[in-house]
Specification:
Rna Polymerase Sigma Factor, Chain: A, single chain, 180 residues, mainly alpha, 7 helices
Length: 180
């Protein structure tokens, strides 16, 4: 790899690692696994760097590697879920405390339920609703059709609604919030 290419790659890693790590964490649900997943995706991106026609597409390529690698990891028989520590019951700690405790408990429950989804449903829900990507962007990252993304996201949301009921709150994009 040419020196110029290495400098571009280093700049890319410095600028986009945090965003790629967030995607990895949302997809695998474990901090250490997300670090491993990010590292593997950056290695694969580095190897493919000379073949990338446009450097501006490197982030999309790296995100796709994150998603496809995580799905293949989940398919391995040796992969198993890691237990999650349960938060203790909240005690009254003053004004606003119960609301904050409820919010943390709901988030923790959502996180647990999200991790219990099958890999493709988890990826579709995480990319669509947590990363705020479009159906087209999500389908590109997952390597499937837009229809498959809709199906996996719909099935994943249905399972989350069944398990969590009214407590389910996902960050849904609000088009009316755009200001001029």
């Amino acid at each position: 790899m040419a020196v110029r290419d290495e400098e571009e790659f280093h700049d890319f890693v410095a600028a986009r690692s945090a965003s790629l790590f967030r995607t990895a964490l949302l997809v695998v649900g474990d901090h250490q696994l997300a670090q491993d997943l990010l590292q593997e995706s950056l290695v694969r991106t580095y190897v493919a760097w000379p073949r990338l026609r446009e450097v501006r597409n490197a982030e999309a390529y790296a995100r796709r590697v994150v998603v496809t690698t995580s799905i293949s990891w989940r398919r391995r028989r040796s992969f198993h879920e890691r237990p999650v520590e349960v938060l203790p019951e909240a005690t009254a700690g003053g004004p606003g405390w119960p609301d904050l405790a409820d919010a943390v408990a709901c988030r923790t429950d959502l996180w647990t339920q999200l991790q219990a989804l099958p890999p493709q449903q988890r990826a579709a829900v995480a990319l669509r609703y947590c990363e705020d990507l479009s159906e087209a962007q999500t389908s590109e990252l997952m390597g499937c059709s837009v229809g498959s993304v809709k199906k996996h996201a719909s099935l994943g949301l249905a399972k989350l609604r069944d398990r969590m009921g009214a407590r389910l709150t996902l960050p849904v994009p609000d088009d009316s919030a755009v200001t001029s």
